Each structure stands twice: as structure tokens, then as C-alpha cells.
């Protein structure tokens, strides 16, 4: 699944982006999620998929209650992997929540944090905006679109405060910006079970995302050590 989702099998070339100017497939970039694939269903790379896999294995082994939630899903690849993991294990009491605007990055001119405005990721929405219908089709290609997959569609500040998620075992944030990250932390982290994992994808590359993480941790007295996954992502395990 990891090789198919990252398309290391057919080696599609990347699209031009703020992270890569290359025009040919580079196995190193694809492994570490350093390009935006033209075809693959995820851009996070093999290392970050390995991390999601390890977190899912641990919460299941330890009996940590709750679902898998990702905020910011692009083509849906990470959520597809999570659903495939649950299906392969025959686990039927956990859901996969797919949360996204399905319209790309919000206009950075509307964001309060100055670094968000400088990044101008919304200028890449031609690539980053993937419709819910397309994500659903991607799930269907793996025969994994079923009632264990739930969608939360809309801008995070409008949807996450009332999201019907009860308990979370693995929470993965990939909203890129300060406000997207902070909104997800404020409304979803309290639902993360003790022993569950919080993964932040953009921590290493987007300063405003990192700011949101540290501000939230300081405000709530979170002291669990932050573990680096790769040059982009980090995670920590919530204590009791």
C-alpha cells in the first residue's frame, strides 16, 4: 500500500511546486516526501507513512481507544492507508475521519499570522485543491470507501468545533498554516486518548505551523517530548 500510494511503483514525475523544481522522478525525494507527485495519492513520502503505520500499530497493540483523524488530506492517501490498515487487521470499531475544505489552502491574506501570508500556499491551489468527489473516487479505487470512512467537509474554523468525533487514537495535522493548525489543536487534541499520538506534518518546514504547536503546548502545559519523524513531521504521544 505504501509503495502504491506514493507511486514508487510507476515513478510519476513531480509537478513544479514551492518544494521542488525537479521535472523527473527522484526516489530520494519521494521517500522523504520532498515533492508534489503528479499522480500519486499522497505527497508525504514513505518515511511519514511508516510513522503513521507505527503509530497505528502501537495504539492497537496497547488498546488505546479512538479513531484516526487527518486534517488536510490532499488526495486522501494517508487516510486511505489508515483505512487499509484497519481493514487488514479486521478492526471494525474504529473510524477514519477525512477532514478538509476540499478547496485547497484558504486565502493567506485573510490569515492573522504574517508568515502565513508570506508563504502564499494558496497560490498553488491549482494543485492543492482536490475535491471531495475525487478523494472519494480514490478510496473507491482501493475498495475502501465504506461506512467506516467519514468526511468532515469545510474550512476548519467552521467544521472542527462541532465535528462529531468522540475519541481519537491517532490525530494527524496537515493544515500547513498557523490558524489551521491551531484550530485543529484546540478542537481535536482534547479528544485524543491518553496513549494516543499527535502527528504534525508541517512542523519542520512551516514556521507558523511550528509556532502554533508550541503556543498550544505552552498554554496547556504539555510536556511530552516531541519526536522528529523526518525533516517535516514530528509526533508526540499523549500521556495519562
Automatic annotation (TrEMBL):
What is one process in the GO biological process aspect for this record? methylation
Q: Which domain of life is it from?
A: Bacteria
Q: Which Gene3D superfamilies match?
A: Vaccinia Virus protein VP39
**GO MF annotations in UniProt:** methyltransferase activity
Alphabetical UniProt keywords: Methyltransferase, Transferase
Which Pfam families does the entry mention?
A: TylF
Its recorded name reads: Macrocin O-methyltransferase
Q: Which organism is it from?
A: Streptomyces calidiresistens
Amino acid at each position: 500500500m505504501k509503495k502504491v500510494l506514493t507511486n514508487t511503483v510507476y515513478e510519476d514525475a513531480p509537478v513544479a511546486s514551492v518544494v521542488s523544481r525537479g521535472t523527473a522522478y527522484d526516489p530520494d525525494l519521494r521517500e522523504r516526501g520532498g515533492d508534489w507527485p503528479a499522480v500519486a495519492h499522497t505527497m508525504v513520502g514513505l518515511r511519514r507513512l511508516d510513522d503513521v503505520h507505527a503509530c497505528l500499530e502501537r495504539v492497537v497493540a496497547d488498546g488505546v481507544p479512538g479513531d484516526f483523524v487527518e486534517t488536510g488530506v490532499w488526495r486522501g492517501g494517508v487516510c486511505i492507508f489508515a483505512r487499509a490498515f484497519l481493514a487488514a487487521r479486521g478492526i471494525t470499531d474504529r473510524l477514519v475521519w477525512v477532514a478538509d475544505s476540499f478547496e485547497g489552502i484558504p486565502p493567506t491574506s485573510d490569515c492573522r499570522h504574517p508568515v502565513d501570508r508570506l508563504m502564499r500556499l494558496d497560490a498553488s491551489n491549482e494543485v492543492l485543491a482536490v475535491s471531495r468527489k475525487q478523494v472519494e473516487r480514490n478510496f473507491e479505487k482501493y475498495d475502501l470507501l465504506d461506512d467506516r470512512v467519514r468526511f468532515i467537509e469545510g474550512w476548519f474554523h467552521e467544521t472542527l468545533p462541532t465535528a462529531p468525533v468522540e475519541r481519537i487514537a491517532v490525530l494527524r495535522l496537515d493544515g500547513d498554516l498557523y490558524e489551521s493548525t491551531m484550530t485543529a489543536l484546540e478542537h481535536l487534541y482534547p479528544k485524543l486518548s491518553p496513549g494516543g499520538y499527535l502527528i504534525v506534518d508541517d512542523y519542520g518546514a512551516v514556521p507558523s505551523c511550528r509556532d502554533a504547536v508550541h503556543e498550544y503546548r505552552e498554554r496547556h502545559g504539555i510536556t511530552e517530548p516531541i519526536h522528529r519523524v523526518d525533516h517535516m513531521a514530528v509526533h508526540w504521544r499523549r500521556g495519562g
